[in-house]
Automatic annotation (TrEMBL):
The name this protein goes by in its record: Acyl-CoA dehydrogenase
Acyl-CoA oxidase/dehydrogenase middle domain sequence ranges: 126-222
Originating species: Vulcanimicrobium alpinum
UniProt keyword Secreted, yes or no: no
Keywords, sorted A to Z: FAD, Flavoprotein, Oxidoreductase
CDD domains referenced in this protein's UniProt entry, alphabetically: SCAD_SBCAD
Stated family: Belongs to the acyl-CoA dehydrogenase family.
Pfam families the UniProt entry points to: Acyl-CoA_dh_1, Acyl-CoA_dh_M, Acyl-CoA_dh_N
PANTHER family: ACYL-COA DEHYDROGENASE (PTHR43884), ISOVALERYL-COA DEHYDROGENASE, MITOCHONDRIAL-RELATED (PTHR43884:SF12)
The Acyl-CoA dehydrogenase/oxidase N-terminal domain, residue ranges: 12-122
Cofactor: FAD
Amino acid sequence: MSIAPPATATSDVEEMILDTVRQLVKERVEPRAAEIDEKGEFPWDIKELFAQNDLLGIPFPEEYGGLGGSFVTYVKVVEEVAKACASSSLIIAVQELGALPILIGGTDEQKRRWIPDLASGKKIAAYALTEPGSGSDAAGSMRTKARRDGDDYVLDGTKIWITQGSVADVTTVFAVTDPAKGPNGISAFVLEKGTPGFTVGKLEKKMGIRGSPTVELSFENCRVPAANMLGAEGEGFKIAMKVLDKSRPGIAAQALGIAQGALDYATEYTKQRVAFGKPISQQQGLQFMLADMKTEVEAARLLLYEAASKCDENAPDVTTWAAMAKLKCGDTAMSVTVDAVQLLGGYGYSTEYPVERMMRDAKITQIYEGTQQIQRLVIARSMVGKWSPPKP
Ligand code: CAA
């Protein structure tokens, strides 16, 4: 009988990748983190660094140019980067999010067409689901339309909050093809940069993840070849949901990394800072805070690695585990970073120290890829089902 190692155990290959990532983070990412946040610009140098080190296609199959790594390795890499810079970690996470619709819903030909350039980092991906009136209620409130016209579909509508939307070469856009069919009347299309009628609009000014561009995308009479549709007409929403099952652990990893980064910084600070004649780390009130922070971080980590191994196994309950990991890690990131700021006192509130940035960055992990309330809805529905009113 063979017993699978726990997801927390690292294989030799994974350890090698993580060693490289830790070194790159120390030498190249961490020194840039404050500047990336302050300037609010996409860090092209960091994207190149990740591309050169094969970090943009870790869980993509080797036959399409990916590393053929596991989701467990992928989340550990995102976590390592996020310890120093949440914006940089998002480059890896959103490349996965943007490629997943093709990997999940695409034909072999479509995968060969788009995935190798995404795996190598030659091109950047984005995922466009959210609209001005459609966030949590992604299916019911979607207004972007796609109508068939000969060999094309014609898209009209607007998407907002699209992470990396302004730098992406390849964007999967979800649009209503049959309004009468609800979620089963939504289809997925791959749009390439420069497609006539496809424009990038307003750049959001944000509290955190300021080095990651978040933009509005508009489609006006935008013609997309039918060959760019992923799956059959009407399968788009299910593709979108299956993608989130595998991408939410990436955001959970980002959240966990932010929490760990803040905890490490605050712990060291308490050992140096003296008050009432001894390091503040020796004050019981603060020790209790540190102990609670560490316990939360380790609990979140166990949940995340388990969710990532469910992604590797394509487990039937992956939806629930992905939602639980995102919920726990996002809430942990928020509470731990707030406490880290508190442990540093006035210095914690200053931009000269990284914990205030980490606190601002943490907040988004409770909002995007499904709010914490949506994660709870998904988890509860897996327990008690979705309510449908009885038919009269
Ligand atoms: N896998 C496969 N199919 C799924 C599924 C999943 N995980 N989840 C739902 N479906 C199917 C259902 O089975 C159903 O199919 P049938 O009609 O055949 O029965 C269909 O999809 C519709 O599902 P629901 O009835 O559950 O739909 P709903 O409208 O009640 O609720 C929801 C769905 C879970 C609330 C969903 O809308 C949701 O997750 N909302 C949040 C949206 C979100 O996470 N947005 C994030 C944007 S991306 C982002 O933020 C990225 C970034 O910036 C970095």
